[in-house]
Sequence to fold (285 residues):
Amino acid sequence: MPNTFIDIQNISFSYDEDNSSDKIFDNFSLKIAKGDFIALIGHNGCGKSTLSKLLNGLYLPQTGNIFVDGMDTKDDNLKYEIRKKLGLVFQNPDNQIVASVVEEDVAFGPENLGLDPLEIRKRVDYALKTVDMYEHRLKAPYNLSGGQKQRVAIAGIIAMQPDCIVLDEPTSMLDPKGCNEVMNTIINLNKTFNITVILITHNMKEAALAKRVIVLDKGRIISDGKPREVFSNVDLLKKFSLSVPQATELAYLLKGYGFNLPDGILDEYECAVAVSQMLEDLKCR
Fold:
């Protein structure tokens, strides 16, 4: 893969090193390109969150290696550099916010990097503007909505200028407005700044916005491709009790009743266009 940023090579991992039958990953490999936008989906316990912590060295594989921009996560001397390259955003923003003022919270990471105060100011302003939270910079985080808090948490990672952001179900505790705010921020970071994004989600509509969808089950990849390719295989996903975007599900059901609809429908607009064309075709018969 050209411009490989993350290279996972034949890793095995278990929380109980003495129990080889309880492995989360066993001889698992994966490559992720620089600037890619990956949606990682699968049931609870399939290894998604564990993988996110393996990527920045919070956990280490028992066998095999993980390289982030060429750096081995097992090398203690490189952990600091790896965590500057790859930032984690967790499910609950309250667990990541540490200061009583928004801009102070965003400055926390750069301060720990030992940067000059002028550089910190520059990074904080840049990060807050990037996530459209600059006007809230002097507010207390507890006065913000859930979506705003999550954007502040993302800004804190951006201020450290990582090449990759891993987001572990960042919208699961948010209302629809907050979900849209966070997803728009994530898409903008990837498109505008070429930041590699790994989004762990149970929301298939969100997953469909990625460039590449990887489906995990019991620590192994069961599907990997563009969203249209992955979600077209509805029968495979249903076999593993996984859902698809609602528009894809509706098209699948209509096709099951014999209606002629194209494969690969992902969103409401595509579904509406396809159904409209189908009805038009029926009128002409």
